């Protein structure tokens, strides 16, 4: 089968991480093309964050298009996809759908076109373009959809009850250390206040949606109350004015290390994963944490409510309030030994592997 995975560019986000993993898995048994739309010779550090992790077996194609939804750009996407002549076109993210609206609309009558919903439909993801596609080509079966978590799927069905959709939960490649693991261990040990400190980790770019302010405020309070913890924050954007305002409010037990491609090394050196988002679809970082055997504390967002069994392999806050999130952290710290043991035992039989995810997509593509 000839498959095109289509995305705007390979930034350091969860959707981009997923597309690279999925392409690398699909290419083991299928001719796979990973096509990016916007010019990757510009903003190279951002647009090529995961480029080096694309398998040599995957055909990488960059269309080199400028920003802006011009008709000429739409036509370029169409001509390239038509020339590639794939059996399947798999589109990721609303921004990609905007750039490929003409191409996917026209090609849906001769090719199989799929779209994966990567975020929460209750929080700005129910865009007009998606609504149009769901209510026209979606109902006709020309534009097939998938949701990445059970909660996401239930929300989609509530929005689009007459549009067929499949729930295919996200997956992640195995979490293994790199040759930088030893250096990261040394870095972590130097950052921690003391050897017995419990190390929390948060992985995300600085963005209002990720609600890092909630996490920082919660950890500040716990440190003031005498809890022996440190927090490492991995992610870009904390050098911006918005990011600096968050950094400035953090106590000295909170450490910002910037963006890292070897996130697995930091995960494997940590004790508890923390997610404080206002909304999500299925957080890739949470999947990484679960596959690394890390218990997690999260706000009650899509994906987290499916993956975290409250009190078993982590804790969910009752709401997004400071008091509720702080209490969830306290429960995780007080019950660390049991939730860590459960998280370790659950990781080996995880349904959230990229191999299982790719198998389900191929099954879907073959229908």
TrEMBL record:
Keyword Nuclease part of the UniProt annotation: no
Glycosyltransferase subfamily 4-like N-terminal domain residues: 13-171
Taxonomic superkingdom: Bacteria
GO MF annotation list: glycosyltransferase activity
Residue ranges annotated for the Glycosyl transferase family domain, each copy included: 189-339
This enzyme's EC code(s): 2.4.-.-
InterPro entries: Glyco_trans_1, Glyco_trans_4-like_N, Glycosyltransferase_grp1
Enzyme class: transferase
Record keywords: Glycosyltransferase, Transferase
Protein name as catalogued: Glycosyltransferase
